[in-house]
Structures are given as C-alpha cells and as structure tokens.
Structure to design on (512 residues):
DNA sequence: ACCATACGTTCCAGAAAATGGAATTTCTTG
DNA sequence: CAAGAAATTCCATTTTCTGGAACGTATGGT
C-alpha cells in the first residue's frame, strides 16, 4: 500500500498513514487487517501514538482517530514545506497575468483554509495570515470542495455545518446549494458572486491530486476581485489560465 | 501538561516537527541545537526519515527539507474525517462567545484526556496540550464522568483510583466526592473550584452519546478561567451556552 | 440468561535496534 | 593548502521492540 516500508523507529507511523487513508476512525482489528501486522504490535503502536497525542480514542472506546497534534503537524508541514515556494511562484505568475489577487486554499474537513495568497499590487509582500478560514458554503473554493467530495461525506457534512448568511447573495438553502454544486461539477469551476463579502467576486478552479488511486480535490486556487474592477464575466475569461495554474499546483502536491 | 516528548519509536518525528516549525530547510547542526539531542542521534533520525521518504536533502546536499510523503500525509490528514474539524469549530465559537478557553475531553476509563482545546485571546492563560491527562476526581469534566457512570462501575473505579490531593480544595474523601457527584447529577453540570490548580476554576457540561442503545457520558466540554477574571458564579452563567455546544458536539460523534 | 465468538489487552524471553562518546572523513574558507 | 567546522561512521552497551500465547472483556445469537 505504501510505496516504501517504514523503518528506523518510524513503524508506528504506518498506523497514522493507514488511518489518514481510511478517512475514518478504525478499530484495532481493522488496522491489523489493513496493515498485515501482528495484533499485539499494532496495539503497541496505537498506544504509542495515543500517548504522544497523534491519535486519540473515539468516545466509543474502541476505535482510534487522528488527533489534534497530527492536525497541527499537517498544517505546519503544508506551510513549511518547500513545495510552498513553488506554489507561490505559480500564484505569482498568475497574479502578474490577470492583475488580481490570487489565493491557494485547502479544505481542512469543514472550512476553507488559506495556504497562501499573493496580492496584485504588492507582489513581493504578503499581507495576510496563512491559516485564515472561510466557510465552505459561501466561497468559490469551498463550493468546489463540496462539489467534488464523495456524496456520502457531503451529506454528512451539510447536516452539521450551518449555512450562515454572509451577504445577500449567500446560498443559505440546501436546495440552492445542491443546484449550485451540480452546476460546478458540470462547468469544472466555481464562482463567488458576492456571497461572502459584498463587492467581492471570485472564480476558483480545483486542484486534483491522486491519492490511493482516487482522484480528489484537496486544494483550489482562486482569483479574487472587487466587482467594480472585474465582474464575474470578466473573471470567467481567466478560467483557462486558472486551470492551467491549478494543474501546475497539483504537481507540487504529488511526488517530486 | 505542556509538550509531551515523543516516545515509543516515534522520536525521529521530533525532527519532522522541528523542520515544519522552522518553516525552512535546516542543517544537522541547527537541528542538534534546536532539539538538544546528540549529533549522531539526530543524524540517524534524519537518515531514517529520509530513507522513508518523509524528508529529502536540499539540493545543497547539506540541509534537509520536508519531502513528498510528508506532504501527502499532511493532505490526507486534513482531508480526512470531518468530525475533528467540526468539533473544533464548535469549541471555537464557544470561546468567541464566552471569552475564555474551552476544552473537549473524553474519559478513557480512569483519567480525563484532552481531545482538543481552544484558547481565548487573553494574555493570561494556562496552557494544556491536547492529549494531556488529568485525574478524574479533581476536575470538572472528570467528576461529570464519575457522576453519570453506572453506579457499579463508579464504585469499582473509586476503589482503584487514589483521591490524590492537588490543591487545598481537592475533594479527597469518598463521602465528600459522593455528595458532590449527587449534586452534579441534580444540576446537570459540574464545576471545579480550584480543585486541580490554584487560581483555576472551571465549569463543565456532559456530552451524551448513544452507544449500543445506552445513553452515556463519555465526553465533556468545559470552560476554564483564572478565578481572578471569572469566578464560578460568572462561569455558571455560561452553562446554557455550554450545554448547547455540548449537544452540537454530541451530534458529531453520532454519524458512523 | 447462557454460551460462542470475536475483539482487545497483557505477558515475556529472545531478537533487534537505538544510543552517544569518540574517531574519522568530508566540506568550507581564508 | 592548511585549519576549522560540519557531517559521518564506529561500536560496545543499553534499551526497546517483537509477536506467539494466554488472558480478559464485550458482543451477538438463541
């Protein structure tokens, strides 16, 4: 399953990878099957990961799930890893090309989290906090993630996140959102028509990566503009450029 | 209570965390300084991480940087089960509302374990890391678990765990604790009046989940505050909000 | 309520790996 | 091209890991 076996005091990490791949909490028995490792060994690994805060037990006391420290580590990796510089260059070229601010976001399970952003007027200066968050239903990127997510997960998620109204245009009904998501899947890109902030429009394209031979949309890049300077129709003309950049970004998430 | 050391065959991960935290490639010498670990050991850890694809060498041949496998793991972690992210959002909203740090704990059979914690933006704060453990008898959450546990199990447990004194206010007699637990069941919430740490007060509400058609309290959320800023009476006013959030958290544990 | 079965946990002696001070090699710099 | 710094290797000792077997504990069926 994994390309290379973990050795050198890292074998317990296999459990973390397995749990991340399964995308849901798992029992000891399931992990034993998945990993083909003796039961007492997996048990010991689980205890080690738990004692260190990387895993925690689901309240059912049986299954294990990925814990807060692992999430923190994941965020730190994405912000600190060298691929980030590559991605910023791609973003910068796009910004130079279209003349508006662009951003790269990732879906953190619930919300859209900014990984990076390049402003149009200050190409060398970054004036935002990586890690800012935006609700999924009211942003072009977020709707993209929702659109391309497995249906079962989407349903579960939409049952639990509130469709908070941000502006007059925010889609706050499940049916309107469902229709929009379908349209996004048809078009292959997503828009934000002042749904998050008044006066701000946005076009986003998906960044697909292949994980465990499954194509999923983990990230998105978007062009944001004040509607007074570029309306949706104007931004839509940039979609091919956006998609090309998205393809380049996808490569930075794969191997090197 | 603070950062816990990595043990159990996970020590090399400290290097990964360090590199992620530094946000840029680092040399062996830098990592040795940063980690305060002997040079040959760090070297071995680096080789282990490299051989496994989590780290790679910067083109300069000297520095190490985070590699593709780590990125993939990070993405998989963030993409995974939305439960964590949902719970964190609920906590975050509560924290914004009440202005004090809140935490989510589960009961692991003996101790209270932190699943997550969100700090308020106040300068004065006590810091608990997720994964920390706290004795059941001297914390608001722990007493909640004890209160709502089946009596037979409670008796057995109380015979096993020592009622260690943490502060002057810690309940160290079985009778005082029994009385407290009864009061908790009557009120539906629990308090910690500087019973674990001097100067720290806390109010906790139960998170009930239905498991095997049995309603049980396996998790709890709590608001913690320095007594100088919010005393018990002040915190008690937040109980309805706390209970509402507890209900939302419960929902995130239900779906498969 | 009972048993059958699966699941989780603990035990422990042999096997394997980690540890770090010291020595050695390789890179850097003036 | 030497001097100093950094990286790498060596290796005896200590420590941890491993996994078959045995032991508890929960679950599901009758």
């Amino acid at each position: 399953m994994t390309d290379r076996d973990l050795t050198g005091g890292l074998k317990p990490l296999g459990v973390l990878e397995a749990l991340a791949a399964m995308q849901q909490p798992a029992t000891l028995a399931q992990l034993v099957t998945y990993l083909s490792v003796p039961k007492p060994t997996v048990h010991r690994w689980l205890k080690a990961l738990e004692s260190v805060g990387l895993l925690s037990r689901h309240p059912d006391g049986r299954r294990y799930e990925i814990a807060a420290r692992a999430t923190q580590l994941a965020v730190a990796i994405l912000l600190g890893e060298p691929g980030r510089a590559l991605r910023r260059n791609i973003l910068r070229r796009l910004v130079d090309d279209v003349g508006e601010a662009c951003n790269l976001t990732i879906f953190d399970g619930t919300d859209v989290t900014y990984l990076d952003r390049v402003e149009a007027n200050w190409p060398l200066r970054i004036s935002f906090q990586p890690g800012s968050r935006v609700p999924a239903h009211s942003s072009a990127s977020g709707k993209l993630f929702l659109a391309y997510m497995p249906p079962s997960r989407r349903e579960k998620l939409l049952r639990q996140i509130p469709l908070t109204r941000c502006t007059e245009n925010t889609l706050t009904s499940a049916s309107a959102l469902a229709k929009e998501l379908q349209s996004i899947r048809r078009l292959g890109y997503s828009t934000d028509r002042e749904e998050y902030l008044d006066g701000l429009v946005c076009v986003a394209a998906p960044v697909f990566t292949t994980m465990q031979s499954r194509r999923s949309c983990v990230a998105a890049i978007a062009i944001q503009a004040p509607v007074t300077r570029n309306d949706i129709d104007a931004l839509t003309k940039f979609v091919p450029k956006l998609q090309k950049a998205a393809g380049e970004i996808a490569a930075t998430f794969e191997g090197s």
